[in-house]
Structure formats: structure tokens, C-alpha cells
Amino acid sequence: MSTAILSIRPQPGAQATCQTGAEMGLEITPYPLSRIEPLAWEAPDPATIDALLIGSANAIRHGGESLRALRGKPVFAVGRSTAAVAKSAGFTVQLAGQGGLQELLSRIPAGRVRLLRIAGRDHVPLQLPEQVSMETRIAYAAQDVAMPDPMQAQLAEGALVLLHSAGSARHLRAECERLNLDLGAIAIAALGPRIADAAGEGWARIGTAPQPTDQALLALAADMCH
Fold first, then answer.
1. CA–CA distances in Å: residue 152 to residues 32, 185, 215
2. HSE-up of 180 (CA within 13 Å, CB side)?
3. Which of 117, 86, 92 is nearest to 104 (CA)?
4. Fold identical between 4-33+145-225 and 36-142?
5. What is the dihedral of CA 90, 141, 132, 98, to 10 degrees?
6. Please, what CATH class does the domain formed by 36-142 belong to?
7. pLDDT by residue (tens digit) across 150-183?
8. What CATH class does 4-33+145-225 carry?
9. Which tens digits make up the pLDDT trace of 198-220?
């Protein structure tokens, strides 16, 4: 496989993707184009919520004291890796998803449930099932950084970039345009349709993973590189 595969998600996610890729026989180079920074937030009265909805391990890593005050609440986690981070922080995971937050919401047990969603500044809108209510608190944000020279050189020669968020897709495109890089030499493997749409047009190829998991995204990347 000659096409370089690049991960631009922030750490520690980029390294996790590289490790998963290595287990699948893929060599992936991490070039984080953003870093996660915590934001000040206040938790609502714990008596007004039944469970926490967590769409990223970053919510656990950067939730701070406000999150620790809610440790007694069960967690609905977007996937296994997020669930593992929540458990290591002392939370009880009641449900772990397999296909994104919307899929997870559809699996919440019947009955009235009041959720607190702890999210990043750039987060996916959700349709709530009947009997489910939700408050949202923004606990962290991705701060974009400039593309490093080695990544520019690899993109100029042709590469495939893994996209895990709409924000990273927009930032990648903006950096490529700022640096006058040829989009037609760059392929994109996106975690979902919303992310692919955010990347826009003009790339060599754009593929979308059939499920929003690292394993599905990396399988797509392997197929695109053959």
C-alpha cells in the first residue's frame, strides 16, 4: 500500500487511531490539526437529571470539577472507547452505543428520562425520542492549529486523510486552500455523511464509513488505498 494515510484528529485520539490502524495492518501518521481545551461550565442541579449523555471521551477528560460532582449519575456513552474512559473516571456506564449518538438514543429504555449532554463546542444536533428531555453543557472546544511542513509535503505528493469531525474537515480544507495545495491529489475518508459534506468538493476521492467507528473508517481507508 503506497498511499500515505494521515490522521488529523487531536491527541490522544490520533494516537488511538494509529494504534487501531496498526492492528489492522495499516501504517497511519498522526498530524493533529487541533488540540482540545477545557471550557468553564456549570452543572445543573443533579436532582433535575437522570443520566449523562457522553458523545466523546473528551467530555470525561476535560469535564473538570463540574463533571466530578455528577459522578453518581449513570452514563450513556457513544461507544466502547468512551465508555472505557468513563469507567476509569469512576462512572457507571449504563449503555454504550455502536453507531453514533442518535443510534444510542434509540436504545434508551422506555420511560421518561432527563439527560444532561456534556459536549464540545462543535457537536452534532440530535432528535430526541418521545419521553426523553435533554439539557446541554459545553465543556471543551477544539482549537485549530496550522498544518506542519511535513504534512504539507505528504499531501503535495498525494495522501488519504482521515476525518473524524466536521470541524476538522472544514479546517483541513481551509489550510489546504491557504497553502495552495491541490485538493485533487488528496483523498478523504470521513466518519459520516455530515463530515464528508463539511469537507466540500474538489478532492481526489471522498469516502464515507458505513458506521461511525474507527474500525469502519479504517476499513474504508484500506479499500480506498488499494
1. 13, 12, 26
2. 0
3. 117
4. yes
5. -70
6. alpha beta
7. 999 999 999 999 999 999 999 999 999 999 999 9
8. alpha beta
9. 999 999 999 999 988 899 999 99
CB atoms < 10 A from the CB of 92, how many? 12
Q: Quick one: pLDDT at residue 2?
A: 64
Question: b or e along 176-193 (b: 16 or more beta carbons within 10 Å of the residue's beta carbon)?
Answer: beeeebebeebbbbbbbe
Verdict on whether the full-model pTM lies above 0.90: no
Q: Is 7 helix (H, G, I), strand (E, B) or coil?
A: strand
**Are the CB atoms for 112 and 48 separated by under 8 Å?**
no
- pLDDT of 121 > 50? The answer is yes
Residue 1 predicted with pLDDT over 60? no
User: What does residue 127 show for φ and ψ, rounded to 5 degrees?
Assistant: -100, 120
C-alpha cell at 39: 471550557
- Per-position DSSP letters for 180-198, written without gaps between them: T--GGGEEEEESSHHHHHH
Q: Are 8 and 161 in contact (CB under 8 A)?
A: yes
DSSP string, 94-163: EEE-SS-HHHHHTTSPSS-EEEEEEEESS----PPPTTEEEEEEEEEEEEE-PPPHHHHHHHHH-EEEEE
Set of cell numbers at residue 101: 449518538
Domain positions in the chain are 4-33+145-225, 36-142
Tell me the C-alpha distance between 103 and 100, whole Å. Answer: 6
3-state helix/strand/coil string of 29-92:
EECCCEEEEECCCCCCCHHHCCEEEECCHHHHHCCHHHHHCCCCCCEEECCHHHHHHHHHCCCC
Question: Would you say 126 and 101 are in contact if contact means Cβ atoms under 8 Å apart?
Answer: yes
Distance in angstroms (rounded) separating the CA atoms of residues 199 and 170: 6
